[in-house]
Fold this sequence. Notes:
Blueprint lengths: L18 H6 L15 E5 L6 E5 H6 L5 H8 L4 E4 L6 E4 L15 H10 L11 E4 L6 E4 L12 H11 L6 H12 L5 E6 L3 E7 L3 E6 L7 H16 L3 E6 H6 L1 H12 L1
Parallel strand pairs: 9-10
Antiparallel strand pairs: 1-2, 3-4, 5-6, 7-8, 8-9
Helix pairs in contact: 6-9
Amino acid sequence: MKCNGCDNQAVTKKGWCSVDCYRKNQHLVANSGRKQNTKRVEVYCAKCNKLELKTEPQAKKYLYCSIECLTQSNIKPTTSKSCKNCNSKFHLKPGKDKTHGVGIFCSMKCYKEYHSSGNHKYGRRVEWIKKKCKTCNEEFEVTPARTDSAKFCSLRCHNINNFLNMNTSNTDIENIIGKMPKELNIRYTPQHPLLGITVADFFVEPNIAIYADGDYWHSLPKSIIRDKRNNKVLKNHGFVVLRFLGSTIKTNPEFVKEQLHENII
Length: 265
């Protein structure tokens, strides 16, 4: 029996003499002369101009050679704007230029200077009022219209306050580790905010932060990066960070108790 793609002797059951011959003539169906829509055509990547062989349906559907080229091509250019106060140029992300009130000033400082000078269309000066954040006690400035409503300096402080005041019960691992300081005669504060970036499950004066981390949530890539970042910031400010996974707390509570005894007492 002859090969489907050439005059050589067929070796495989489907009538091909070699793998190379099968790939070159894949547009032919085995043991028949009927054509399929699997003919390979030369296609250049729309991003890096790399030459590839694809079927005709793939050539119409897939314009890029890899996910990297697809991702880079989807990055839209930023929009250049001029600050209304200092006339310096700054860049906005795609879509931000359509948001109401965004893209007029390059910074909050210029926004305050412009409205304090009285040069805007309403022609009156805005006197900024200082307030203290309800979460971190840092001072921030608001307009007179927001004197009563503004309570937090940032969205982060707002979220931390909501977390601290919501009605929740401790997890099982927090209940286990919460009994250990009492057995060691150690006083602690539960759910204590630190530096406005994190909330320690247990805080021991003056600088020890204890965390009971669930295995699933704290094994996610985003959680790992966040925990490492928070640990670094806390250590740079002189805090001692003790993190224990839920599996360790349940299976080996004596080890956790020893670590608390070594680092606190």
